[in-house]
Structure formats: C-alpha cells, structure tokens
Amino acid sequence: MSFSVTTPIYYVNSDPHLGHAYTTVAGDVIARHRRQRGEDVFFLTGTDEHGVNIARAADDAGLPPKEFCDIMSARFRALSEALESSHDFFIRTTDPEHERRVQDFVQLLKDRGELYEGTYAGLYCSSCEVFYSESDLIQPGNYCPLHPNKRAEWVEERNWFFPLTKWAPRLLELYDEHTEFVRPRARYNEARSLIAGGLEDVSFSRATVSWGVPVPWEPEQTIYVWVDALLNYRTALEYGLGRDVTGEFWPTNLHLMAKDILRLHGIVWPAMLLAAGYEPPHGLFVHGYFTSAGQKMSKTLGNVIDPFEVIERLGADALRFYLLREVQWGQDGDVTWEGIQRRYEGELANDLGNLVSRSLAMVERYRGGTVPEGVNALEPVHDSVAARLANYDLTGALEEIWGLVRTANRFVEERQPWALARSDQEADAKRLDETLYTLVDTVRALAVLLHPVIPAAAAKILQAVGEPGAVGWDRAGLGLTAAGTRVVQPDQLFPKERVSG
Ligand code: MSP
After folding, report:
1. How far apart are alpha carbons 464 and 493 in whole angstroms?
2. Is 20 near ligand 1, meaning CB less than 6 Å away?
C-alpha cells in the first residue's frame, strides 16, 4: 500500500506562523500514522515562491527575488524541521526541475488544445493572486474579502486562458461519483455548488508579472502562479527523490489545506489534470482557520503567534498536541498562549506525564523494575482510533486516545496500588501485579498511539519500557508487553518549569 499526502506550499512573502505549522503538523500526523501501518508514504510540503506578491515583498526587503526567496524558504524549512515534520520532500517552486516541468505541462495543455488566447480585464488581489468580481469584494473600495486592508487592482491584458467552463460537466461527474472527494461535507457542498452555479474560464498566464515561469512559446508572459504552484504536487513526485515515483504515489491520496484555497484545489486543479490526461487526486481535506480573539490569524492582520517561540519554550510535541487538540479539525478556532500553557500543564504534564512517571516508579518500587505477570484490565482503543484516522478525524482520534489516558489515571486511583503493596495477602499481591502490568502495558500502548502526534515523548516512553522504536500499529493494542521486561524511569517528559520559566 502506498499513500501520498500534501500540505499547501506556503507563500514566502512573510514569516511562517502558527497557521502554516497547523497544516504541516496535520500532514505529519497522517504520514506518521500511515507509516506505522506499514504503508509506503510520500509526504510533501514546501514553498510557493513566484508572483507579484512575492516580487513586491522582495522589493520591500531590497533584495533580488531569488535571494529573498532563498532566505524566506529556509525559514519555512526550519519551521518544518523544528516541528519534527517527517516530510519526504520539501519542494520550492524556484527549483529548476520544477520550473521546467511546469513549462512542459502548459505546453502539453496547449498541444491538446486546452489553452486559448483572450483578453482579461478584472479586479485582482495580489495577496490572493486571484481575480475577483466586484460582488466578491468589499464595497466601497474593492477591498479583498480575505485581506480587508487590501484593495483589488484593475488589471487588463492579453492572456492564455484555460477553458474551465468546458470541464464543469466532468467535474460534476467526479463529485457525484466520489462523494468524499472533498471533506468535510460542508466543503464538498460548497465546491460542488460553485461548479453547478457556473464557472468562468481561468487566465493561465500573466503579461505584467515578470517573477514567474515563462510561457514556453511566448516567454514575455509568465505562467499564472497558481498553475505553477498546484503543479508542485505532481512535479515533486517526478524529481523530489531523484527518481520518478509517480507510478507509486500518483494520484495524490490527500491534499490538506484551509478553506480559502478550496476552489483552486477542488475545481481548477482536477480540471487541469483531466485536461492533461492525468488522474485527479483521491481527495481533499479542508481545515478551518486559526483565529485570535475571533479574527483570522494572518500576517496582514498582525495577530500571529510565533510557532518558533512556542517550540523553544515548550517543545515541538507540546505545539503539535495543542494544535490538534484545541481546535476541532475541520472547523475554525481560537488559539492563545494561555490555551497552549493550559493544555501543556493540564494534559501533557499532569494527565500523561504523571501517568507515565508514577506507573514506572511503582514498578521500580514494588517489583524492582521488572514487569510482573498480568492481563491488561483496560479496554483497548486502537481500533476506534484507526477508524477515526481513516476518516481523517484527527481531533476525534486524539480524544479517543486521551480517553484511555484518563481511564488509566482513574484506574490507579481505584486500585490504590500503594495500599495493595502494604498488604500481606496473596490475593493483593496478585492484584498489584495485574495493576502494575496494566499500567506499564497501557503506557506502552499509549506511546504507540501517540507517536504520530508527540513523536519525541513517545520515543522516550518506549525507551523507558524497553521497546525503543516499537511504534508499529501492530503494537497499538493492549496486553502485548512481555512479563519480565525491565523498565526505567524516563526523564521528565513535560517539565512544568517550562511554563512558568
Ligand atoms: N501558496 C498558496 C498555496 C498554494 S498550494 C498549491 C497559499 N499559501 S499560504 O502561505 O497563504 O498558506 C496557505 C495555507 O497555510 C492554508 O491553506 C493553510 O493550510 C495554512 N494557513 C495559513 N493561515 C492559516 C490560519 N490562520 N489558520 C489555519 N491555517 C492557515 O495559499
């Protein structure tokens, strides 16, 4: 089995923020889980580097565009690394291997009669790199709905057009045959009704934008940045690993993104693939926006939380966990520093950290660090976690896992192992064995279940229970720990001083 998952490629016009971290973490969780299940995975992320907006940002920074992009792209890559993202390739749209293939693709469309010349006149938001009709814009003043401080600009030019309208019936067919093409359902409905409501052809080239990939047969024009950007999902498979892996990983199983770019991914992208004779992706999952006090978190609005700062203070695991736990996957939600600290202390340090440390400390104290014979007395959750993950219900999966964390903590309180240890009854000694077995084994299984979300802590726990590296899903059930295993106390997983310090 093979599985390919992508994040959008991020614009490099300003620094990465928590919203970018969100999609990368989600992609990574899905990629890690699929690898746990023994699948071959291609997880792709990267940066989107052409277009007016980026050329302007470079200009503002007083740098040539490519130099500016090198610096900014490196920051996004650094964020991926700080997040411990396990991506297989980090693409840049300024990679010459990508640019060449973008040209080949539009040439292919032209050769297939899928591009025609026309004149475009319309209002353009350079932050979105999208044309808008007046009714989409905020009036008076033609302000962009997504960038309320920004007015769309009038652009009129001769372009190469892609006949999107012509593909509408085929797109509707795709949506009707494949009702999970876009998830959640509300986004599917939104995209489908956009198609049913009537599409317009899309201009695929720009006469006035010089920072872009030249149209092969008319190099004075550049290829529309969105065409260039969307194609990353294909070109990466052709050169990213140094060999062509499209045979294994095409079509893409899952594109992740926020709702602002649904139309491009759910309509334009499959249409251009169909027009070129390629299979469209299997599906899209559209998540919500992070907001801060109810407003979209964005560089333009200046209300961003710096992910690097969170990672530096609390660690990548803490940020990864918070992002998936705090906001219902698929919906908008507010994120705050206070919230991050609350979850760190209450859930990671208290619920999980204490469970691990007291479980292992009791095995040390009462059984000399050796796991006794026993049967795990708790109910496994791995099947329902797997079912949720198969539906990309990331928040739901994490909630199931946390249910087991809470149950295990309650189990300690109910069993009172410290009281059992004081008793000289044979039955109590047996009950203590079973209790300790249950705790160590549950902690081990939790590390397997949590590996995709908090990989660093999971690795430490598995090390402590004598199973370093055993993250495979075959180990996610309960009762798999061998009696006689030696355990040690791990370093504190989530030190509380980090919050106050
Ligand atoms: N470059 C385009 C995408 C091209 S993909 C072929 C783009 N870039 S972006 O820098 O604006 O990043 C967009 C993506 O970053 C969103 O789709 C989402 O995945 C993530 N997020 C950016 N801001 C976000 C929030 N405030 N909240 C949640 N996710 C956010 O669009």
Report:
1. 11
2. yes
User: Do residues 95 and 48 lie in contact, with contact meaning Cβ atoms separated by under 8 Å?
Assistant: no
Residue 322: is its pLDDT beyond 90? yes
Residue among 245, 252, 246, 224 nearest 8 (CA): 252
pTM (predicted TM-score)? 0.94
Alpha carbon distance 321, 384 (integer Å): 19
CA–CA distances in Å: residue 297 to residues 101, 144, 342: 34, 16, 20
Position of tokens 């990629």?
Answer: 31
Q: What is the pLDDT of residues 418-445, one digit of tens each?
A: 999 999 999 999 999 999 999 999 999 9
Residue 48 Cβ < 6 Å to ligand 1: yes
Amino acid identity for residue 438 in this structure: T
Partners of 9 in beta bridges:
46
Q: Which of these is catalytic: 50, 87, 98, 147?
A: 147
Grouping H, G, I as helix, E, B as strand and the rest as coil, residue 2 is strand
Q: What is the DSSP string of 288-300?
A: --EEETTEEP-TT
CA of 137 to the centre of ligand 1 (A): 20
With H, G, I as helix, E, B as strand and everything else as coil, classify residue 393: coil
